[in-house]
Amino acid sequence: MKKYTHAWLAFMAIKRLEQAAIPQEHRANAQSLVKWFKDYRDFVISGSWYPDQVFKDMATSHIIKYRPDEKSKNVSFRKMPGTLRCYQLGLKSPLYQKPFTIEAGNLADRCEAFAQSIVDSFKMLRTEDKGNPISPSNNHIATRFFILSHYIADCHMPLHCDARSFSMDGNIHAFIESEWDKQVRASYELDTDNERFFYDPQGYPLKKKMTALMAAVEQEIVERPFKYEWGTGCKNTWDYMSGVSQYSYLMAYRMIPAEYDNTNLSKETFRGLDCWKEFDTYSKDIFSDAVESIARVWLHVWARYRQWAKM
Ligand SMILES: [Zn+2]
């Protein structure tokens, strides 16, 4: 995904935490996290773009690449929260519960490591005296939240979880991502001099004439029920992101049938697929799921810190 798409998803996750119906027992945590974020919104773009611009760990940490493999003993698919659209669709996939191999990538490890490091940084901040040079700053921690959102969002891009390469020749991967970025840029007021969004009075990206897709996602992320839990069998960020990557892989095969790879999927062929004809439908599911996951992982991180702070 591209720069403004990543930043927009992070903003939408804050909006979901503020405006969706959060279950009573998690509401105080969600409210305090949103309040804390409000001071750091200018870091959203640089933070959520840091992995691509500075870390450049795309070949390993932005992906988990799956391939169907009859000979593999790897067949277990995780149970996820029922609110995730990729999960609902994946349960109906012909590849669901079929063996697979993971050929590359450590995206789930990266997300787990970031989640842990944010909790640790908060603990250091609270422990050290103000001004102590080893103490991390709130600015730094907020930036790490937005960096984490980048990896979570990438996991929801189906082609990041598919071992078939669509990044050469027709480069459908880049094509889809630039179509998305165009929609973000068309729907919000951008302060291009300062590389950020203009904000509305609530501190969210200021809307202009919204595309149908962007408007649908804005609505979905507020209306979709909020489940705090990871899903049966997932105990932490690593488990959860591993599960997301499995259903993202199934989504990739739903979008682009098994007979295609970079050698035979030109833009012309792609335009004939259902995936292109229903681009907005797939995109809405992918974006809304990404926002759901970012909000869920962030809230768990924050809750762990708050739990510790109470002790
Ligand atoms: Zn990336």
UniProtKB/TrEMBL annotation:
Name under which the protein is recorded: S1/P1 Nuclease
Organism: Prevotella illustrans
InterPro entries tied to this protein: PLipase_C/P1_nuclease_dom_sf
Origin superkingdom: Bacteria
